[in-house]
Amino acid sequence: MITKPASMKRPDILGNGDCSSHRGVFNAMGKQWWRRLSYLSILATVPALLVSHVEGARSDDTEKPAASDAGQGAGRLQKPKVSGSNPQLLKRQSEFRLPHQIGSFDVASAPAGKDDCPGQTIPGGNYTAAAPFTVSGDTTGANNTVTHLQYYYYYSFDSAGPDHIYSFTLTGLGPNPKIEVSTSSGTYKPLVYVLYGENDRGCPAGTGNSAYAAVASGADSVGTATLDAYQMNVLPLNVPLHLFVDSIRNDATGSGPYTIRMQDVTIAGATACSNHNPIDCTDFFVRQQYLDFLGREPDSAGYTGWQNILNNCGTSVAAPCDRIEVSSDFFRSPEFQDRGYFTYRFYSTLGRNPNFNEFMPDLAKVSGFLSDTQLEANKSAFVQEFMTRPEFKSRYDSLTNPVAYVDGLLQATELQTHPSRDKWIAGLTTGSLSRAQVLRQLVESAEVYHKFYNKAFVVEMYFGYLRRDPDILYLNWIQTMDQNGGDYRAMINGFVNSIEYRKRFEP
């Protein structure tokens, strides 16, 4: 890493003083840029340099992506185009390439998922009856890992159907622990059992094995197999366990869709990361995306799903599926667009971006596991609270005339010709619209959504990855996004692989 002179200072783009402690600025560029391009952190600090070379490989007809109309729902947001990125440049600069791009990658050693031992890991957590762990799958076409099962000394039966496997470690049980495996199929009769993870009774490799189960249960008349509280209390704590979703027969009743539900159990988290920097571990990386961009802990299905995408990228999961793509999906997700970007756009009516210390508390107001009703209530409360802030009041409280209020909002957002101007003025004049409703309709309009999308994308990269306000170089990143049709991969690659980001997690 080439450091800057001690006297060199970076002005904060928000005017918040000296940011000279931030890494990534170097003094001279000139003839040494090729040597410096090899450092991973250069992308996060010199986007103007990068784009000058990426442009040479970019097609001339790349178009800027169209973001969805806010009225259509953030879930319909189109992905920014990736056709303009320079794959060879990204491949050289990224530590986290697709598996088939890494010479030492062994396809045979890729994680097998839930079709083979040790199976899919159930994420750690305290799962209650009100907030159980749930995950769904379909055993149709899966391997038959275990074909014969012994249970409690004298029980012995076949398990000839295809099976799925989940690994976990119990650390505690509640008052009514239970594992249920249900199916929506009219024919499938699931069998559920748990194997010890000890060496002599471990999860067997390959297919056609015999195994000894700690507990087992077949489906009842409605197609649900249940391990009840009595059986759950037989299971040992702090020992690796393997949950099998199987069936007795290999016929029409032997496979199908299923849903696992676990309640009143505490499951240990993943084994501590063995890498020096935990951000290099997939489970840690995925959880960090939830924390940094959605402001919450991961849900079990999403947490497992994203890990499977990264672990199987380039084998059973088609590209693009690397860390750059996964991380970008959090920003472009409906959840973030409908929450984080929602709060961000209100600052456009103040004529500025939010700063980090403003944005994070605002995001928290609309984050979490919320129903549609709860989310709408939180959004409404946020709008009302935003209008009581001193900066908003000093700017708009004196504008009591409907024309002045609407024009003040439009001037701040630089959208003086907004097509809804006359409608808002009329609504305020007749009393059919409140000032809060006009503010929210403006912020949620397609015009505001489109106008600030690229700027928000860049600013929130600083918030999410570096946990700070942007420096002046963020303007170069915005220019890059505007000029290359929204090709986000080069920018995210720079942040994810920057020294500053990685130092957040080093011991």
Structural commentary:
The chain is α+β, with helices and mostly antiparallel strands and about 500 residues long. It has a domain at about 115-265: Jelly Rolls (Sandwich). Helix content is about 35%, strand content about 15%. It is built from 19 helices and 11 strands. It has helices at about 35, 45-55, 85-95, 230, 280-295, 300-310, 325-330, 335, 340-345, 355-365, 370-385, 390-395, 400-415, 420-430, 435-445, 445-465, 475-485, 490-495, 500-505, and strands at about 120, 125, 135-140, 145-150, 155-160, 165-180, 190-195, 210-220, 225, 240-245, 255-265. Strands 1, 2, 3, 4, 5, 6, 7, 8, 9, 10 and 11 form an 11-stranded mixed beta sheet that branches. Strand 4 and strand 5 form a beta hairpin. The longest helix has 21 residues, at about 445-465. Residues about 1-110 have low confidence and may be disordered.
